[in-house]
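Fold it.
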Amino acid sequence: MQVTLLYTSLLTILAIFLAIKVGMNRTETNTMLGEGESSALLQSIRAHGNLIEYAPLALILLALLEMQNTSNWVLHLCGSLFFLGRILHAYGVFISRESTPYRLIGALITWLIMMIMSVMGIYIYVL
């Protein structure tokens, strides 16, 4: 489970970084609950929240594929692209409340990789 451990570790570091950003924005705006009227706080909350919404399913899929002896290069490709997608999405959310190319590409990469891993899992099951 070394590949899953790597990507779980990387995504956890990203999650902590995003959580720290939320905390810093809360301190700056003196808003301890909700987002108040701060656009920056709302953006940091959603960047963190969006990662937390998608990462568990992706990591479960990655772990289950690794347990089925999927090739390491395939696992690394899926894990690294998912991680890249999450970084792009978070960056896109941080720079604007509106849609940005980073946010869009990050979301598309996330969905695509999760769909690919899901189809791989179904394929393995059917075999």
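The chain has one domain: 2-126.
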